[in-house]
Amino acid sequence: METFKVKAYGTVAPDADLKQMEIQRRQVLADDVEIDILYCGVCHSDLHTARNDWGGTKYPAVPGHEIVGKVTAVGSKVTKFKVGDFAAIGCMVDCSCPNCKEEQYCTSGFTGTYNSADVHLGTQTYGGYSEKIVAKESFVLKVPANLDLAAVAPLLCAGITTWSPLRHWNVTKGSKVAVVGLGGLGHMAIKLAKGLGAEVTLFSRTPGKTKDALKLGADHVVISTDDEQMKAVANSFDFIIDTVPYVHDVNPYVTTLKTSSTLVLVGFLGELSPALNTVPLVLGRKAVAGSLIGGIEETQEMLDFCGKHNIVSDIELIEMHNINAAYERMLNSDVKYRFVVDMASFKS
User: Fold this and answer.
1) How many C-beta atoms surround the C-beta of residue 249 within 10 A?
2) Under a CB-based contact definition with an 8 Å cutoff, are residues 92 and 113 in contact?
3) Tens digits of residue pLDDT in 102-120
4) Could you tell me if 243 and 159 are in contact, meaning their C-beta atoms sit under 8 angstroms apart?
5) What is residue 99's predicted lDDT score, i.e. its pLDDT?
6) How far is CA 294 from CA 36, 87, 128, 274, in A?
7) Phi, psi dihedrals of residue 323, rounded to the nearest 5°
8) What pLDDT, on a 0 to 100 scale, did the predictor assign at position 144?
9) Interatomic CA distance for residues 69 and 314, integer angstroms
10) Which of 95, 169, 198, 348 is the most buried (most CB within 10 A)?
11) 8 A C-beta contact, residue 86 and residue 152
12) What's the 3-state SS for 23-91?
């Protein structure tokens, strides 16, 4: 297969900084779209993969799955895109199940934008910390023309990760929704739930985030370390989306669900601690569930919705050579609310 070389930023080991390297991309096939990457969001998953926190990272690793750019070439069978169009790629670039409408749950497995087996080149896939990317048309997304391209990038992961459960659990006008955690995922959950017409409450451990939460669109803020405030919202919510990315106690939040309602985890992978108390689940037919990103059709729906309602992420634009410092700041929650790499800084 014919290939071409592009500059990228990646790492060769779990304890090594990211640095400039060279990778191979395939020349466009009949159903491929080639994209010149303009912006790439920075996700916690990028950091976890780079540092092998979840195990299984293939090196060299080039992260990045919040990609926005301009189409520079299309294959002969491509019908939805033309050269010059703005386009986006999220967390997936292929799926081995041709009939799957929820690719992220495909039992055959999906091909991640990075750190998956590249069936074309026989290597691993490389992500958006690079000059260009080539992907199948069916996994490329249209970008609403009215939105700021840089601020669109995090929608491809943080946006769809919160949109998918909001839609699946039928959040709509008048729903009472609570969001746990105000970070990259949490701030998008507030914006999207509010866009759907919900009454939105933020659960926060500290009062310092109240002003920001209200500015983002939250109607209320409950300090979860305040027992009286927590008692006041017992049995209140139709749906809770928990975006916290580390071990934490979900039991206090379960008690604030209405009967037959659900708390969904989107930020944490691993064992809960302390253990989940099943008493309120059984007595109130409540549920604790999980949700993973979203399918391609769902992601396009989310982008179209954001275009209609002018919803984008709050971002801090950085240059590619600052990515290692950005990772450290991200670990310290020192960003409001998502880093996005301006790839022009890298190409120059």
Assistant:
1) 15
2) yes
3) 788 887 788 999 999 998 9
4) no
5) 63
6) 24, 18, 19, 29
7) -65, -35
8) 96
9) 19
10) 198
11) no
12) EEEECCCCCEEEEEEEEEECCHHHHHHHCCCCCCCCCCECCCCCEEEEEEEECCCCCCCCCCCEEEECC
What letter does residue 276 receive in the DSSP assignment? P
CA 157/CA 112 separation, integer angstroms: 12
Provide the 10 A C-beta neighbour count for residue 322.
Answer: 13
Length of the chain: 348
Q: Could you tell me the two tokens for 28?
A: 């466009």
Three-state secondary structure call for residue 266: coil
Please check whether residue 42 is in contact with residue 59, taking contact to mean a CB–CB distance below 8 angstroms. no
Q: Taking the model in full, what pTM does it have? A: 0.95
Structural domains of the chain ordered from first start = 3-157+313-347 (3.90.180.10), 159-290 (3.40.50.720)
The type of residue at 153 is A
Query: What does the H/E/C string look like for 200-228?
Result: EEEEECCHHHHHHHHHHCCCEEEECCCHH
CA triplet 314, 316, 317: central angle to 5 degrees?
A: 125
Helices (H), the chain: 44-50, 149-152, 158-168, 184-195, 210-216, 227-232, 251-254, 279-284, 296-309, 323-331, 344-347
CA 16 distance to own-chain centroid: 24
| CA 338/CA 348 separation, integer angstroms | 23
Q: Is 257 helix (H, G, I), strand (E, B) or coil?
A: strand
Q: Which amino acid is at 215?
A: K
- C-alpha distances (whole Å) from 329 to each of 20, 25, 205, 247 are 20, 31, 20, 19
State both tokens at 173.
């006008």
Q: For residue range 160-206, what is the model confidence (pLDDT) as tens digits? A: 999 999 999 999 999 999 999 999 999 999 999 999 999 999 999 98
Name which of 196, 293, 184, 278 is nearest 238 in CA terms. 196
Surface-to-core class of residue 33, CB atoms within 10 Å of its CB (0-12 exposed, 13-18 middle, 19+ buried): buried
